[in-house]
Amino acid sequence: MIIIPVKEGENIDRALKKFKRKFEKTGAMRELRRRQRFTKPSVVNREQRLKAIYVQKLRQAEES
């Protein structure tokens, strides 16, 4: 649970902004959207492999 301490006389908009920032950092919405659809493990592995290849190519190009 997210707790935002609001000081005496603090603007409610400022407290709401703090709440939104904290909520975004938790990644709750990202996790919820990810769980809404099922991705086969083989597809996840393939995507990870392709990303690793891409990053490796970038690093090799940077060294050259």
Helix count from the secondary structure assignment:
3
Overall 3D form: elongated
Count of strand segments: 0
What is the typical, i.e. mean, pLDDT?
93
Largest sheet: none
What is the CA-CA span between the terminal residues? 49 Å
Strand content: under 5%
Which structural class should the secondary elements be placed in?
Answer: mainly alpha
The arrangement of helices and strands along the chain is HHH
Enumerate the spans where pLDDT stays under 50 for 5 or more consecutive residues.
none
Helix content: over 70%
What gyration radius follows from the Cα positions, in whole Å? 20 Å
Any idea how many domains? Answer: 1
Short note summarizing the structure:
The protein is mostly helical and 64 residues long. The chain is built from three helices and no strands.
Keywords:
64 residues; mainly alpha; 3 helices
Q: Can you offer a commentary on this structure?
A:
The model has no long low-confidence stretch (mean pLDDT 93). The protein has one domain (12-63). The N and C termini lie far apart (49 Å). It has helices spanning 12-26, 28-36, 41-63. The chain is built from three helices and no strands. The protein is mostly helical and 64 residues long.
